Amino acid sequence: MQGSDIFDATLLGLIEGLTEFIPVSSTAHLLLVGRAIGWQSTGNSFEVLIQLGAVLAVLSVYFARLWQLFITLPSNPRSRKFVTGIVIAFLPAAIIGAFAHSFIKEVLFESPAIICLALIIGGILLLLIDRMPRKVRYHDAMDFPLGLCLKIGFFQCLAMIPGTSRSGATIAGALLMGTDKRSAAEFSFFLAMPTMAGAFTYDLLKNRDILSTDDLQLVAIGFIAAFVSALFVVKYLLDFVSRHGFAPFAYWRIFVGTVGLIALYNFA
User: What is the pLDDT of residue 27?
Assistant: First the structure.
């Protein structure tokens, strides 16, 4: 393992943490930056495995609330409904992701043009959704109906196309169905925990025989960097969204996707 590998793993870990919970697609940023710096990941696993660092950042910030949910689960119907809603929202991506795993990793992850187009299209849609007049019916993620949770779960499946953004898909879906911006982002945080932990476990099991010691060391470095940067984002994102909405992220998506397409065209 060389010093340049350590630097690259740290850089990509920081990018993962900074972009995982905002609707700009962490996977797209990792794959495009990785391509630009010549990063090689065994089975494209690094990009998935370091996401657990971002998950732990959410767990640390929301630990008190998660603990409260845990201890009130047997006695509080509201807590049971919320946890059930998260599980229901998680299931579509878990089922479809397991069946489509090879196609996603071997085809979509290797298509930078698709990633750039998804960034641009997703940015335009997010901008339109952020600005459209909407009737807000839900202000608290704890009170989302189970049917709404399932619909958000299906929206999350769109993020299997790199560049779409898991958080972007879930937030956009929630906004379209009548949630306010803060509760949409918060539900996306909670849904990320089982989704990303499941992706981590599944990818590790699928690639356990081909990952080397160096691969695991680099994953550990990226994991730590992702945890640190995600910690910052999770602490401040909800307040930022409440004040500014999602337009800044939409413009960033369009910018990155456009620059990526130009670079692909010029260096093809």
Answer: 83
Interior/surface letters 123-138, b for 16+ CB within 10 angstroms, e for the rest = bebbbebbeeeeeeeb
Distance, CA of 31 to CA of 46 (rounded, Å)? 10
Identity of residue 69: L
Q: How many CB atoms lie under 10 A from the CB of residue 68?
A: 13
Place of tokens 């550990």: 220
Of 3, 19, 25, nearest in space to 172 by CA:
25
For the chain, how many residues are written?
A: 268
pLDDT single digits (tens) 152-181 = 999 999 888 888 888 889 999 999 999 998
Closest C-alpha to 174, from 100, 85, 104:
85
- Per residue in 211-250, pLDDT (tens digit) is 677 778 888 999 999 999 999 888 888 788 878 888 899 9
Domain region containing 108 = 3-267
For the chain, the domain total comes to 1
